Structure formats: structure tokens, C-alpha cells
Amino acid sequence: LLSAIWSAAPDVTVRRSIITGGALLFGAYAYAVHRDAFIKIVGRTILALAAISVAVYFFIPSIGVDPGFVSAPMGGVFAQKNILGYTVLIGVLCTLYTRNDRRVRIFLPELIFLVACLLLSQSTTSIGTAAIVLFTSAILASLNGTGAQRTLSLLAVWAIVPLCFVAALFPDAVTQALNRDISLSGRLPIWNI
């Protein structure tokens, strides 16, 4: 709500803040009261939306393809490819959470499908975040395994740590390699809008 002070449209900012705050409070309540059931419902809903998005992408491309790009990324039932990417990323997180539930039998196919939707969306931020989450989840899961699995996990971590230092020391080179500007906002001069 404080951003309404310097906002160009304070009424819109206040309205969106109230809506976002209400959704956040509802989500916090639902999570606190029925955490596992809430996460399963969110995961299943996102899985259904992803399936519908894939169908729309292939069978109704005039709606399912994000028109703002030459490479034809999947937008599906969402207004833009990044919204699809963020939503499917939440689905990946829900799927990883429900992995420990013995009653959930279709973990891997669901995860592969959601990752494929992420790749079709071509949402770079969501794909990168999903890669980090999946890599970290694999390392944490393998730490509970045999000695060889633990050794491979530690070697993987030791390989990643220097990459993180390089990214911290040379952010310009890393963002240029990712075809982004230093703000990671894409190629738009976002602060000039």
C-alpha cells in the first residue's frame, strides 16, 4: 500500500494491493489450516490448466500462441507466456511437495509434463528457477541415499559454488551471456516506461 504514495495511478495501486493482500491472507489461512490438501488442490488445478494450455496451443494456435514473439512460445489459456511460466513453476513446486505422499502415484510423468510446458512457454526466468529448484531437490533427495549418491551430490554442489561466485563477481558478463540486461528484466528499458 505504501507504493500508492509515489504511484502514477494511486487508486489502481491501492485496489491491486487490497486484492493481492486478500489473496495472500486467504492462501495463508488455507495453507495453515489444510496445508497438504491446499497444495494438492493447487497442484491439480495447475496441472489441468497446463493440459488445457497445451491443447489450446496445438489445436487453436490463434489463441494458444503468444503473438508478441516470432519464436511462437506457448501462452495457452494465459494472456502471456511468462504468466504461464510462473503458474507452471508453482505447479512444479506443488508436485515436488506432494512427492513424499505415498498416495500420489503419478509423480514423475506429471513433473515431466509440467517441465515440458515450461519449455514450450520459453519463459526464461521460470525455466531458470525451475532448473535451480529441480537441481536442489535432486541433491537433497540424494543426500538420503547411498554413499555414492551423497558423493555425487557433494561434487555437484562443489561444481555449482564456483559458478555462483563467477555470477556474483562478473554479473555483466553473465547477464550478457543470458541475453539480458543487468536488471534481468529482459531487453526493455523498463525504468524509462
Ends apart, CA distance between termini: 21 Å
What structural category do the secondary elements indicate?
mainly alpha
Question: Which ranges are low-confidence, i.e. pLDDT below 50, for 5 or more consecutive residues?
Answer: 188-193
Order of helices and strands: HHHHHHH
The helical percent reads 55-70%
Number of strands: 0
Shape assignment: globular
Please state the CA-atom Rg, rounded to the nearest Å: 20 Å
Q: Which band does the percent of strand residues land in?
A: under 5%
Query: What's the average pLDDT?
Result: 79
* Number of DSSP helical runs: 7
* Largest sheet geometry: none
Descriptive report:
The chain is mainly α and 193 residues long. It has helices at 10-59, 61-64, 81-98, 108-121, 124-142, 147-169, 171-177. The longest helix is centred in the first third of the chain and has 50 residues, at 10-59. It is globular, with a radius of gyration of 20 Å. Residues 188-193 have low confidence and may be disordered.
